[in-house]
Specification:
It is a single chain. The chain is an alpha/beta fold and about 290 residues long. Helix content is about 45%, strand content about 15%. It contains twelve helices and eight strands. The chain has an eight-stranded parallel beta barrel, surrounded by four helices. The radius of gyration is 18 Å and the shape is globular.
Length: about 290
């Protein structure tokens, strides 16, 4: 399994909302050079909720082609429809994605048994490793530790992105999982704490603009050098918070425009970040040395 920084990559868009493939190619090259361990494509930060099915598959395929085996692609293929999640995951695997990231089915509020069966059916449709994704603050459903333990026994369900921010809960889960099952943080603010408890890396929003620093924090933490990791992480602390001052990916996209990394495009119902928060994000960018 992957260890290190997995960037939750934005999907660059033109001002009229069209996908900017040239911009996406530039970002992929940036992450390869910066030491990012893997690309998270078409996830929450990639605005998967407003991509059409065709666009979703096309973005994944383009990323795989651009990466050309130099960095693995973790394709976001979750849905609140089991049939749609299977369709997306099969398509991602056919496109060459090395991993699938499957968010818990949102809005429906399925019980734990429904979650278990949902993930089992998707996993049975492909041979690539599946990384579960639990983010109850967005989905309205929480994948319990007990259900994760059950799912860890399914052959190609190989990891979890834990975006609860509950480090103690993550520690308890890691202590019971087999070593072959990888737990990743999905919360930049608490990622170092989870890695200090055995987490294998961080699926990071902050890595969009601080790729090399996030990669180094992960490398040091996984190697056991927590003081070294903490020193760099302290520089990123304000940024980790500021990039969630409005709904993700509004702040990170605004920051990337300010830094000249992407063009100014985001899809409704999301809009550009309000002027009231711009100084906070700019201050955090400067504090991070960016």
């Amino acid at each position: 399994m992957i260890t290190g920084s997995i960037v939750a990559l934005v999907t660059p868009m033109t001002p009229d909302g069209a996908i900017d493939k040239k911009g996406l190619a530039t970002l992929i090259e940036y992450h390869i050079q910066a030491g990012t361990a893997a690309l998270g494509i078409a996830g929450t930060t990639g605005e998967s909720a407003t991509l059409t099915m065709g666009e979703h598959i096309d973005v994944i395929q383009f990323a795989v082609e651009q990466a050309a085996g130099r960095i693995p692609v973790v394709a976001g293929t979750g849905s609140n429809s089991t049939h749609e999640a299977i369709e997306l995951t099969v398509a991602a695997a056919a496109a060459g994605a090395e991993y699938s990231l499957l968010v818990t089915p949102y809005y429906n509020k399925p019980p734990q048994e429904g979650l278990y069966r949902h993930f089992c059916q998707v996993a049975a449709a492909v041979n690539i490793p599946i990384i579960l994704y639990n983010v109850p603050s967005r989905t309205g459903v929480d994948l319990s530790n007990e259900t994760v333990l059950r799912l860890s026994e399914v052959g190609n369900i190989a990891g979890l992105k834990d975006a609860t921010g509950d480090v103690e809960r993550g520690k308890a889960l890691i202590s019971k999982l087999p070593d072959t099952f990888a737990v990743y943080s999905g919360d930049d603010a608490t990622a170092l704490d989870l890695m200090s408890a055995g987490g294998r890396g961080n699926v990071s929003v902050t890595a969009n603009i601080a790729a090399s620093k996030v990669a180094e924090v992960c490398r040091l933490a996984i190697a056991g050098d927590y003081p070294g990791a903490q020193k760099i992480n302290a520089e990123l602390s304000a940024l980790n918070d500021a990039l969630f001052i409005e709904a993700n990916p509004i702040p990170v996209k605004w920051a990337m425009v300010e830094l000249g990394m992407i063009s100014d495009g985001i899809r409704l119902p999301l809009v550009a970040m309000s002027s009231a928060h711009q100084d906070t994000v700019l201050k955090a960018i400067r504090q991070a040395g960016l």
